[in-house]
Task: inverse folding
């Protein structure tokens, strides 16, 4: 008998029943297909503007910084200013996503844009978020050919771009948006990111930047919403 | 890992004499409890979410076979592999086989209690494969060659000085000659040392906080980001998870996420919650090429349908130990196996045998704070009591204790006899105390008088005074 | 059991510790119940609620004792105990003991529904307030785990203590932490219990109160015993003693010295 058979057999024996079939199985299958929501916190039910405010408040409470720009075209200049304010290197690793690579980087010649996956040497990474979740101040990032997940983790400083139109109130809305965009199968990774990396493993002292980025900056793009 | 639960009393004695440990436990007692209370107060739906979280887990446990098969099918559809393992040994062998197939020399590891449970590190090392823990706490205790003392803060018992010493000893080979004491710099050292390990490791092993049937995803929750580097950079990603971690849908996972971090650290969300589904896709430019889920039973299915089933709701948040006065006193290592605190006291007897772990369910004042804070409402005191009944039935533990209870029960069941005995006891004890009102030392009550005086009876029992009072009319 | 006109019939569950160790708590309870307008009976067949056996894993003895308690308190409108722990045993655990015996379960549930912890009974059911009780002391109240968690007794004792003239009530840190009594636990694991009671006592002393009170004699004997062993002067009384105007009586474990 294989371990699989043993395990399934034990479950059924302990539960004093056979394999779930027929109507029982249909019910469970339906339960999955329904994606029924459980309790969704009231705080997430806000008009868009309120969601963006809540997102920023939560994100900043987690030690990240945020700013809003009127249009995506403003991003390169704002990044230039951000890097100079923070005294960060001007070489940035950018996800190979049209949304970012198509920006007018030539307007900021001092910034060196390198397109690709994250590497050990990267000091600054720039990647697009799939959604923002206001409830907890959380970014949803998807992996894909244009959005390698390493850009979110390897650089010491992470800048994420989030369109205000992609802001949702609660996790459940983000899952629905994801299913609408990608179908039922998920990309290889879905990263929910709430603030920069941290640890409290040495005497409960909070230290930022344990393994992931030490800083997280979120640029919210008000794309006509 | 080696089981030392039998020596609970001795270990606890040593732990309570350890000033560093006391300081560490004080930090837990204050920091985690306040943080959790604040987080719970911030979310009006928190109590209802706990109810729902428990319901979801119960639903899964009632239909575990269905969801496991569903999960497997989805993992395979996304190009991953599921390895069913009935025992710890099967799980170790499954991991080894995957590592061998990947020609692995080093593996990086994210935090995983299941790999502690199956003692994977020692096993891999004995097979010539170097395991490298990447969660800072796990890394520290790996250097110290110790087991974790807390399920979410494995190195909570370590002081900054001890970390300094460990890093000084082990990081010289990487060019760190100075003895660093500043926590920020210590973290920086570990970050740099481990960064290189992530990139060069052949296999990355993580645990899973949840397995999602709907999508065949595995989910890890971290604050450091180590789990993400562990699973994105090596060519092979192995998830080692126990089978009760399954939840039906992303919506169900969301409910559990809402109670997990709040209960654990008081955060609304941990920094990184990562859903992994299969290996890298055709056009992806990063991510592992192989994705394996090693699914461990390890005695869990035997708990289904029994008084212990509710233990399988556990989402390993650590709230029970953060709030446990016994854990605060004795620390995590005293429990003598992987899981400390109330969850360990309830679970370990099943996993290592009640004879070995008999102290754990007995060393509780039944204060009930663990149940009060458990996000999935596991009735921990009820389960501790279940184990006490087992030890009593199976005559495990000191015979005199059982005699004492049986002897006391004999009187308690016979009111008239009981009255006579208590009348006598009240007089004798009152006489021993004299005008002091308390007794400093009593041979047959050493358990009491070794640490505290015994307030003495007033001399006459209530029942005899009441009778007299009534006879004389009021 | 012919109820007197207008009076509410209450059976007192004395508890084994009060019976043996501190009868004055029992008399304080009777006094308070009578002041609140109750007629108090003390069924003769009672001994103990069974917790020592229950917590030691001796289910059979526990069931026997529980059955005797159920029988002894049959028919009373209310059953009241000056202890959250014993009341909690009857209310929460007796029904669980008989879940496989429908007749006994019914009887256990019936008793459970009639059973109350004394202070919450006075405050919630009888709407009682102590009248003309005076105690010029700074007092801190310790929540026993079973009062707090099983019986949800939190505000009632504080509200009643607040009615005592000149009494200043102060709260200790880490109010919800156990004192380390735990019945047989404190005897089987004295070292761990010591650690717990010391932490509790440190928090109590930090309030600068000169008296500690609680609704459970077990906790109080543990706290008083340890206070005396440490040579501390803080006085220890059961909350019913204070409310019944017996606040000047000798504290628990206090002698003539």
Result:
């Amino acid at each position: 008998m294989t371990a699989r058979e043993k395990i399934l057999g034990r479950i059924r024996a302990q539960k004093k029943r056979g394999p779930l079939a027929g109507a029982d199985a249909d019910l469970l299958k339906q339960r999955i297909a329904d994606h029924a929501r459980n309790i969704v916190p009231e705080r997430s039910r806000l008009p868009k503007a309120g969601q963006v405010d809540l997102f920023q408040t939560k994100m900043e409470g987690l030690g990240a910084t945020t700013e809003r720009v009127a249009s995506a075209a403003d991003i390169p200049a704002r990044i230039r200013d951000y890097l100079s304010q923070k005294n960060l290197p001007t070489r940035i690793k950018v996800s190979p996503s049209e949304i970012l690579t198509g920006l007018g980087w030539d307007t900021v010649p001092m910034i060196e844009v390198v397109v690709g996956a994250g590497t050990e040497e990267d000091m600054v990474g720039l990647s697009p978020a799939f959604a923002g979740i206001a409830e907890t101040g959380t970014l949803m990032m998807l992996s894909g050919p244009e959005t390698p997940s390493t850009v979110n983790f390897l650089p010491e400083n992470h800048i994420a771009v989030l369109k205000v139109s992609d802001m949702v109130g609660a996790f459940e809305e983000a899952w629905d948006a994801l299913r609408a965009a990608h179908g039922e199968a998920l990309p290889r990774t879905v990263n929910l990111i709430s603030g920069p990396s941290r640890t409290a493993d040495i005497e409960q002292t909070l230290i930022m930047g344990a393994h992931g980025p030490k800083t997280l900056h979120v640029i919210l793009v008000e794309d006509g919403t | 890992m080696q089981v030392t639960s039998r020596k609970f009393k001795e270990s606890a004695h040593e732990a309570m004499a350890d000033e560093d440990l006391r300081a560490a436990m004080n930090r837990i007692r204050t920091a985690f409890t306040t943080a959790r209370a604040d987080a719970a107060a911030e979310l009006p739906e928190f109590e209802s979410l706990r109810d729902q979280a428990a319901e979801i887990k119960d639903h899964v446990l009632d239909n575990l076979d269905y969801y496991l098969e569903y999960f497997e099918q989805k993992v395979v559809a996304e190009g991953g592999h599921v390895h069913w393992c009935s025992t710890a040994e099967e799980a170790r062998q499954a991991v080894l086989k995957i590592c061998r197939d990947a020609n692995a020399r080093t593996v990086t590891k994210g935090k995983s209690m299941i790999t502690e449970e199956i003692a994977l590190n020692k096993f891999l090392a004995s097979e010539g494969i170097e395991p490298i823990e990447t969660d800072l706490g796990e890394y520290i205790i790996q250097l110290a060659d110790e087991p974790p003392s807390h399920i979410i803060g494995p190195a909570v018992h370590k002081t900054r000085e001890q970390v300094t010493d460990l890093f000084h000893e082990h990081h010289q080979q990487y060019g760190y000659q100075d003895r660093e004491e500043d926590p920020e710099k210590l973290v920086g050292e570990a970050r740099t040392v481990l960064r290189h390990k992530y990139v060069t490791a052949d296999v990355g092993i993580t645990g899973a906080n949840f397995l999602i049937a709907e999508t065949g995803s595995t989910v890890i929750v971290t604050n450091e980001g180590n789990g993400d580097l562990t699973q994105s950079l090596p060519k092979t990603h192995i998830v080692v998870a126990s089978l009760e971690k399954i939840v039906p849908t992303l919506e169900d996972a969301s409910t559990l996420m809402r109670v997990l971090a709040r209960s654990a650290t008081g955060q609304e969300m941990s920094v990184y919650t990562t859903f992994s589904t299969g290996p890298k896709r055709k056009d992806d430019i990063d991510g592992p090429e192989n994705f394996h889920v090693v699914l461990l039973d390890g005695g869990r299915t035997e708990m289904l349908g029994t008084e212990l089933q509710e233990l399988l709701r556990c989402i390993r948040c650590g709230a029970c130990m953060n709030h446990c006065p016994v854990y605060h006193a004795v620390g995590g290592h005293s429990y003598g196996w992987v899981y400390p605190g109330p969850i360990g006291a309830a679970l370990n007897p099943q996993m290592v045998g009640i004879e070995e772990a008999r102290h754990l369910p007995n060393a509780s004042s039944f204060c009930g704070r663990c149940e009060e804070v458990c996000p999935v409402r596991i009735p921990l005191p009820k389960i501790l009591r279940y184990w006490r009944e087992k030890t009593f039935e199976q005559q495990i533990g000191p015979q005199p204790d059982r005699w004492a209870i049986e002897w006391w029960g004999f009187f308690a069941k016979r009111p008239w006899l009981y009255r006579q005995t208590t009348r006598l006891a009240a007089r004798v004890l009152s006489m021993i105390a004299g005008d002091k009102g308390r007794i400093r030392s009593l041979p047959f009550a050493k358990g009491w008088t070794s640490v505290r005086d015994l307030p003495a009876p007033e001399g006459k029992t209530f029942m005899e005074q009441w009778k007299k009072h009534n006879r004389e009319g009021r | 059991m012919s109820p007197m006109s207008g009076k509410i019939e209450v059976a007192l569950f004395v508890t084994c510790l009060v019976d043996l160790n501190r009868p004055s708590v029992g008399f304080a309870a009777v006094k308070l119940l009578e002041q609140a307008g109750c007629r108090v009976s003390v069924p003769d067949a009672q001994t103990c609620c069974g917790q020592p056996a229950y917590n030691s894993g001796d289910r059979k003895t526990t069931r026997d004792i529980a059955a005797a308690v159920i029988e002894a308190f049959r028919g009373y409108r209310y059953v009241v105990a000056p202890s959250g722990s014993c009341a909690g045993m009857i209310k929460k655990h007796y029904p669980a003991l008989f879940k496989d015996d429908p007749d006994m379960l019914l009887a256990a549930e019936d008793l459970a529904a009639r059973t109350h912890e004394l202070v919450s009974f006075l405050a919630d059911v009888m709407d009682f307030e102590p009248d003309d009780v005076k105690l010029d002391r700074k007092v801190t109240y310790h929540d026993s785990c079973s009062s707090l968690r099983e019986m949800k007794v939190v505000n009632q004792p504080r509200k009643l203590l607040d009615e005592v003239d000149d009494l200043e009530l102060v709260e200790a840190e880490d109010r919800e932490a156990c004192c380390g009594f735990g019945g047989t636990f404190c005897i089987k694991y004295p070292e761990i219990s010591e650690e717990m009671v010391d932490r509790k006592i440190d928090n109590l002393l930090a309030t600068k109160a000169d008296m500690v009170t609680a609704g459970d004699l077990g906790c109080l004997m543990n706290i008083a015993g340890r206070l005396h062993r440490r040579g501390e002067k803080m006085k220890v009384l059961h909350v019913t003693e204070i409310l019944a105007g017996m606040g000047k009586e000798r504290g628990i474990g206090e002698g003539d010295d």
Summary: The longest helix of chain A spans residues 48-61.
